[in-house]
Amino acid sequence: MLKNTSGGNGRIVGGAVIVLLFLLPLFLPRFYIYLISIILLTGLLATSLNLPLGYGGIFQFHHAVFYGVGAYAAALMITKSGLSPWVGFVVGPFAAAFLSLIMGLICIRLSKLYFGMLQISLGSLVWIIVYRWYSFTGGDNGIHGIPVPEIISSQNNAYYFTLLVTLLSLWALYKIINSPFGSALQGIRDNPVRSGMIGINVKLHQLMVLVIAGFFAGVAGSLFIVVDTAVFPDMLFWTLSLEVLIMCLLGGWFTFLGPMLGAAVIISLRTFVSGFTDYWTLPLGILMMLVIFFLPNGILGYIQDKLYGKIAEQAEAVEQTDLAQPAVKES
Amino acid sequence: MDLIYTIFSPKLMSQIFVGLSRTVILFIVASGLSLILGVLRIPNIWHGSLYMVGAFMTFTISGAIGGGSLGFWMALFLAPLGVAFVSLIAERSFFQHLYEREHIMLLLLTFAFSLVFGDLVKMVWGMEYKSVPVPRVFQGSVHLFGGLPFPLYNVFLLGIGPIVAVALWLIVNKTKIGKISRAAAVDREMVGAVGINVSWVFAFVFMIGCLLAGLGGALVAPTVNVSLGMDHTLIMEAFLIVIIGGLGNIWGALLGALIFGLAQSLGILIWPQFGIVFPYAAVIVVLLLRPTGLLKSTW
Predict the structure, then answer these.
(1) How many beta-carbon pairs below 8 A join chains A and B?
(2) Mean pLDDT across chain B, nearest whole number?
(3) Nearest residue on chain B to A248, alpha-carbon basis
(4) What domains sit in chain B, N to C, each tagged with a CATH number?
(5) Is A327 within the bounds of a domain?
(6) What pTM value is reported for the model?
(7) Residue in B111, B112, B239 nearest the CB of A117
(8) Which tens digits make up the pLDDT trace of A90-139?
(9) Rounded to an integer, what distance in angstroms lies between the CA atom of residue A51 and that of residue B294?
(10) By the 8 A CB rule, do B95 and B106 touch?
(11) CATH code for position A50
């Protein structure tokens, strides 16, 4: 009963937020629209990471490589092939998903920390190739001035496009998590041996979730081209992967919207801090330490604990008083 | 005779020696990382920053003592100790509270430390390149087969490598604390149950591992431009070496460093632009054949 009403409230609030997001360009200056676009696509990246990490319990340490490869595949398709840019935007995510499949096939044999380390090493190989192959990828300069279709080239339209694609992707991810597949996944996270015993193909499920996560990371990478019209090798460097991991942790990695919230907090903070100092990694590091020590379930996880904890307590208290004084309830 | 000369051309031989001296640095850093991973199960990303701090400390100390040979030797002694001291404080005040938590939290904490130290180094030493002079004894070069010059300092490095390896082996296998730490790596609770303070054993191992990072930084300082960002590539290389060697295995770290260093130097000979890709490709090949590393892992 209580859960239902809070779900209803959630729907109303969510609807209001979406309407607000669509109205923002009417009254916000250009810079903030750009910022929110970046938050949205980075939030999508973090949410896609949370699928294997929070729901699958897989140590996906190098997620940025799929983001970067998605972006590079789209950028190279657009600049080298001469086909419509839309083709590039479709190719990007599929290239990322394909890479994710290959890396997944290699890494999936190992578990936990070993998986994560092997993934970081494979990702570094991809990074170094992109970084050194000047004639093809532009090396450390990256690729700039990528032409995007006329209709989404203005900043507001790029924003609307990003918003629309992000919302659709989030909806798809939400559906995946709440499908039988998602339940099986969380079962595997909590107890892989038992899940295997009741007939779930553990490795296949893990591989599938890696491919799905890689695909949506590629979507985020393609969106970056729409917003920024550029790609550079830092997009697939391992430090970005860990930053995205921080976003998941900060927002709360057992919650669906946590990573998006974490992305919003960290990117806003970076913009704010860079206004008056060159030092950004120092405050980020300190923030991270605080989160690790004092907020291990993240912001949303903390709120959820408080909220449901309180409700559960109240329910318990009500039950107890009911049992103690049944007569009072009559009046 | 001609054939032998072509195969073992002076250029190739000198490249091999360059690779071997690189191997020494990689081994020293990676063995520290491997020790921490094997005993404490911490994937210590901070390790790279400590290597960088070691190099910068060497610059400062050798400059403060006049920049001569004496300065360098003092720096080689003091910089690793300074790094070890910093790591001990960090371990006692932060890391020790997280051992019961998930690996990923420890990984993120070490990453947080590396972020903080990246900026601290920038604050203390600034953005410019620093260079540390080679000590007078090792200035100049020797002539190897066929007359290609080879820096004397690298010969010194080649001598240091085996010394560190043997010293580390002696500490881990022959001393009491080494034996305790190996036992703690296998079963922490059991070691605690027989009345040993495991917490301080862990602190000791962490400190030794970080000392090696500082030593690597101090040794590499005269051969490179000491600069910001030297931590980022190195830590990745050290991780790869530890993985292909087998997590926690010191000899594995040596083998991995050998593969990595030689692949790098020979790769440059074969294909200059993509020389740096070769070690990574070698890593992939090794991992496809033996996904858990070449030698036995302590995990």
Answers:
(1) 110
(2) 86
(3) B108
(4) 2-289 (1.10.3470)
(5) no
(6) 0.86
(7) B239
(8) 999 999 999 999 999 888 887 777 788 788 888 888 888 888 888 888 87
(9) 32
(10) yes
(11) 1.10.3470
